[in-house]
Amino acid sequence: MSAGRRFAAVFFDLDGTLVSERIGVREARTAVGQRLIELGLWTKPATAFADSIEMVIGGILEDNDWQWPLWLHSEEWMRRTLTVTELSVSDDEFRELCAVYRDERSDRAEAIAGWADALAAARRHGQIGLITNFNDGLMQREKIRGAGLDGQFDGIYISGEIGIWKPEPGIFEHAATDLGVPPSECVHIGNSIVSDVEGALAAGMQAVLVEEDDRPRPDGLDDRVVWCADLTSVSLWLRG
Fold first, then answer.
1. Burial per residue of 71-101, b for 16 or more beta-carbon CB atoms within 10 angstroms, e otherwise
2. CA-CA distance, 191 to 42, in Å (whole number)?
3. Residue 59, pLDDT above cutoff 90
């Protein structure tokens, strides 16, 4: 895929591509522990509850070959952590704990350096869309707001709202149809070979893989895929 091609629409992934997956996560889990202390349900340090969450999630990931399963949303790991720590909460308290995590995580969301230039370069092509895998649509939208990305997209497509998950080509096709453009005239930019690259290619889109960690180019990528080290590289490529 050569630089200089024009696209009718440019789609981006969110977590790990435009918004950091790491910033604010530990703090949000600790905030849940602090709320449990305030409710009189937890007597250890708030960070100890965050440790319990991470232990539960780590066990689930190990059982799933270190891939994040699509069913693993915050309510699920919250329930499992409460079970492991032998805490009993009411339905209202459970909803409050989930809200604490969601609000804290969203408020701490931080866009990755270079995002503004990348979106500006994308806008020179045409429409801009966001395609993101996440169970909790509300949390993703709040994360978009918290990271300062509100109003940047012509369409936002969240798997938990649509009922189709990347890498299924259907979510890419749905997004293209909604913006009124054929997939063959679109490019999708993301940081996952499976969810972003393979999914986009299966839908007939072009694909850009963003590898922030400066790792070598993954094997098996053909000339339909562009590899970029960061969003600055994405901007340069989009400007052709």
1. ebebbebbebbbeebebebeeebeeebbebb
2. 38
3. yes
Angle, vertex CA 75, rays to CA 60 and CA 161, nearest 5 = 105
Q: How far is CA 230 from the centre of its chain?
A: 16
The residues near 116 (Cβ < 8 Å, ≥ 6 apart) are none
- The pLDDT assigned to 1 comes to 44
pLDDT value of position 155: 98
Mean pLDDT for the stretch of residues 89-117: 93
Structure tokens, 150: 């509100």
Rg (CA), the chain: 19
Residues 208/189, Cβ–Cβ less than 8 Å: yes
| Residue 21: predicted pLDDT | 77
Residue 216 has pLDDT above 90, yes or no: no
Determine contact, residues 206/1, Cβ cutoff 8 Å: yes
Using CA atoms, how far apart are residues 94 and 237, in angstroms rounded to an integer?
46
Closest CA to 231 of 127, 146, 149: 149
SS3 26: helix
